[in-house]
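Colleagues,

Please find the record for the two-part complex below.
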Amino acid sequence: MAAISLAIIGKNNEPLFIKEFFDESNRCSTNFLYEEELFGLPPPKDRPPPACSLRQQFILHSALDRFEQLAGPSPGYAWRTINASGTDAMFVGLLCPVDDLRVYGYMTTTQIKFILCVEDDALPDDQPSVDEMIKRLLFKIHRLYVEQTLNPFSSMGAPISSPRFESQLKSTVTAYNHAVAR
Amino acid sequence: METSTSTGADSHVSEQIFEFLVTELTHYSRAHCAPASDSQRDEEEALAMASEMVQAKVERMGYSVGYRITERLALNKTWNVAPNQDTAVAVASQQLEAVKFLCKDVWLELFAKQIDKLQTNHRGVFVLKDLSLKWMLRFPVGAEDSRIMAQQLLSYPCGIIRGCLSNLGIPAVVSCDFLADGQSMAACSFNIKVK
């Protein structure tokens, strides 16, 4: 159930952060296209390569539609069990399976959406404990996000560009991936 | 005032020091928004203009603080809205829950007390009354200067309220008033009007 990619979506469905987790060694350049290349234009030289492959971007985008369906405009919160509170109430759960992946959602009280894409290789019996682990991972990511917003120099509601956030996120996700690796 | 970060180690800020900081923040804004000196023919207007600018500046600072602190305080906070409701009813109850969160959690974090009184007309207008706002307790009563300064300082909590609500998805206009003009500057009310 290794984590593959993560998207943080703002209040008005604007992307705040999109990231694919991969080994630098097996990064396949054909998957990481600049937007310019989609239209046959030459790739820009002054920007670092995209942080997320096209396939993952498409998956995260389509998962957002499903998210909207569940969370929707008020009265939303259809996913919540009665009397759930805190993290349990924020965890939307499985949004949809895509090929060999599963996409999970999480929405904070301040309407920030987290979409996490994981490998689908757990046995059916393990599913409850797996959900629990993903919930915990998403809560950790939520805390990292909060820490990032508390920084008075970060701009509010703008895409996240913080090396500190990235490195903390990376270590959190790596720790999780190690824990679930068999 | 107390802020705790999620790293585990709680960091605290001394109340007195924070009060000094808030006062100095107003001074700083006043120094940066001096009335335009070239418009001598209408000095009064220039002064009023400068005062407005100071209020706007302090309010913006408060907005940023309110916005960010809400993100932190709402980390473990959810409120249940009964499903299958009429949209208008659901929106109204959402707003009420958000304002309650502001009165309880945010105020507790900032001033170690809750708001004294919350009134609403259930149509998007809320009036919050705090009878002894900590930052305003030491203001002298009666002097005109003190009143102007107090008004400027009060924009800071106004901004915090606006930032908090805006992060919870409620765009609002916040204004403030003194309740007991002759006796104390610390009794004030905040009027919230949801846009």
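Chain A touches chain B at residues 11, 73-75, 77-78, 80, 82-87, 89-90, 108-111, 142-147, 149-150, 152, 156 (CB under 8 Å).

Comments are welcome before we finalize the supplementary table.
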